[in-house]
Write a structure and sequence with these properties.
Helix content is 66%, strand content 0%. By secondary structure, it is mainly α. The longest helix is centred in the middle third of the chain and has 44 residues.
Length: 348
């Protein structure tokens, strides 16, 4: 089920044109459109792995996701680990950073990634999107596109609140000048700049895509740089700029956004990372059941006796990749809280 994840990291055929004969996937000997290909013990075990993963992800989502809000005994809303608030999608993690900086970062990242995605599609053709790498690259491009829109809306809300708060602070100054002297009008601004309204549909979509990308991008780039690149070095192959950029800028932009934003990172949303990989595998299974074509990654081929082991191994790889990003986010919050205690805005 998660086997596709590791696939995400394997290079595309055009990226390794010089090694095409040795590297380009070949059509499997077994005919994937025949019923005998699918009705056997190997496929059954892989289906069991997929089913177990889907049951676990469904449990995590329905138990912890924020849109299933619970109400406490006094009638107020309970603070839920899966809650997403409207301002979290566009608010920087430090009060001293204007939301416009996060907006500018997201806009630049979106256009850079979009241009690269278009170039990859033109150079390699539509079949490049058979690969998990390009699925993930398209997903992170979508993340920055949606993030740019949410940040744009957030900047509008921010400026609107700041304008109103300045009027309020002038009135407060005339009524209670002593409080203004001790705290300053900036404190009033900081307290009222941000709302605690729950996020809407697109806010939750944005948060979910963020955590899906966290695991998928890390998995993709780690496998590429630590497994595939050493293999290519043995064959004296020089990586081109497009390949290097595709497997580095995605992580750089995502880590940069994670450093700036104030999104929470609850562990249960690893479920969406698994669902992303499951969707890719189901796509490949459906495609190969209808058309006899090559597998993007050899270990996806269910004709191999090692297929169940491969599928299980790649599923397990999701855990350290997602866990590593979780630790980075926790480290970020701890360091910012220590270095900038007055400006730091912790996730709710």
């Amino acid at each position: 089920m998660a086997s596709s994840s590791s696939s995400s990291l394997l290079p595309s055929p055009s990226s390794y044109a010089e090694l095409k004969d040795a590297w380009h996937p070949s059509t499997t000997i077994a005919n994937t459109t025949e019923p005998s290909y699918w009705f056997n013990w190997r496929v059954m075990i892989c289906c069991i792995w997929m089913a177990i993963a889907m049951v676990i992800t469904a449990f995590l989502i329905f138990k912890y996701e924020g849109f299933h809000r619970k109400v406490s005994g006094d009638g107020g809303e309970k603070e839920w680990s899966g809650n997403v608030y409207e301002d979290e999608t566009w608010r920087p993690c430090l009060r001293n950073i204007h939301p416009a900086w996060l907006l500018a970062f997201r806009v630049v990242a979106f256009f850079v990634l979009l241009i690269m995605l278009i170039v990859i599609g033109v150079v390699d053709g539509p079949t490049i999107f058979f690969y998990y790498t390009q699925w993930t690259f398209a997903l992170i491009t979508l993340y920055f596109g949606l993030g740019s829109l949410l940040s744009l809306h957030g900047c509008y809300q921010y400026n609107k609140r700041v304008s109103g708060d300045r009027v309020d602070s002038i009135e407060a100054m005339s009524v209670d000048s002593e409080r203004v002297i001790s705290k300053g009008s900036d404190h009033t601004l900081q307290q009222s700049q941000y709302s605690s309204n729950p996020a809407g549909f697109w806010g939750y979509v944005f948060q979910i895509i963020f955590q899906m990308n966290a695991g998928a991008v890390l998995l993709t780039d780690c496998v590429f740089w630590f497994i595939i690149v050493p293999f290519l070095e043995i064959h004296d192959y020089s990586l081109n700029v497009l390949v290097i950029s595709m497997h580095s800028l995605n992580a750089i932009f995502l880590l940069g956004d994670a450093a700036l934003n104030s999104l929470s990172f609850p562990c249960f949303r690893i479920a969406y990372f698994f669902l992303w990989t499951i969707a890719y595998v189901l796509f490949q299974w459906t495609l190969h059941s209808l058309v006899h074509i090559w597998w993007p990654y050899p270990f996806l081929d269910l004709a191999s006796h090692y297929a169940p082991l491969w599928y299980f191994s790649v599923a397990v790889m999701h855990l350290p990749c997602y866990g590593a990003f979780t630790l980075l986010v926790k480290l970020k919050h701890r360091l910012l809280q220590r270095w900038f205690p007055e400006s730091y805005q912790s996730p709710r």
